[in-house]
Write a structure and sequence with these properties.
single chain, 356 residues, alpha/beta, 7-stranded parallel β-sheet, binds uridine-diphosphate-N-acetylglucosamine
Length: 356
Amino acid sequence: MKFVHVVGARPNFMKADPVYRSLAERGHEQVLVHTGQHYDALMSDVFFKALEIPNPDESLNVGSGSHAQQTAAIMSRFEPVVIAHNPDIVLVYGDVNSTVAAALVCSKLGIHVAHVESGLRSFDRSMPEEINRLVTDQLADILFTPSADGNENLAREGVAMEKVFLVGNVMIDTLIRYLPKADEEFHNLKKKLSIGEFGLVTLHRPSNVDNESIMLPMLQELDSLSMELPLIFPVHPRTQQKWAERLEQCNRNLHVTAPLGYLEFLALQKNARVVITDSGGIQEETTYLGTPCLTLRENTERPITVTLGTNVIIGRDWGLLRKYFHEALNGGHKKVGCIPLWDGKASERIANILTR
Ligand code: UD1
């Protein structure tokens, strides 16, 4: 069989990698398309290198733009590429603009689409990713869910359940594969950062970083918490562009860095006393690693990380942030359960289903 994989933004790369590997092991023909949604070396190339992903066969070089511009550019550049390759199935990952754009193109051409990480819902349509999830899942022919709540959401939306397969979490496949390497990396990193105990921070959601009345108090809180526990803060380009000046004014315990590579970041997540984030994937990785995760969002599309994992939804309640921050430092944070099918074998299950 012939498969086309579409990736474009940072969180796609660690999801596509294990599926590509599993299909390669079974001897299938594969084409890797990079839309260029993320293009900085630190947002893209470093992941290809660390995960040993082959260079893309096709690069669409769309770059940044408004949602409409970016989505449209991916669609118009992807269409001739997918027609030329004429695959049996196109695989799309997660919930970024590249995901929905490729799904739209394929469904109009009558090419089968498989969506990996299907069924997640935040029920918040002000979040661009929620629109991408809803549309992609309506268009997909095969839907792979990471957890049972995904199946429930799809059933409620009227998706035919014979198209839906609960396979587990492919990002955890990658985490499990690379954890030993990340552990090696941690020794170098510790020396480089000359740091003892630490917490880890990431912020890039438009609902936080594009909003001054939210971002300013948030930074003030982080600045203040870093006096109790040094915080490492690898800054996403979106955040850097808007807040470079303000970040420079933070105290020295808030270690502001450029975006980090996969292994370095994984090592930090594993060894942090606490992670404070608005990312989706990090809620899952910290749950697997057993690291307390405080999510600076009003909702999550990954509720299983709250019910069975280490995640707590903080919203913008700074009192709650402090409470859980101190609980994490005192070792009182809730303990993690085992999430069914987050076992390193999700991509094997996907490959078996696709080639059945
Ligand atoms: C995108 C995804 C988001 C995901 C995030 C992970 C969508 C709608 N959003 O958000 O779901 O969580 O990636 O990082 O698909 N920029 C650079 N260099 C790059 C890429 C972006 O400087 O390599 C800057 C550009 O100015 C751009 C801004 O960052 O305008 C935002 O990039 P964009 O891809 O639009 O969205 P993200 O915030 O990265």
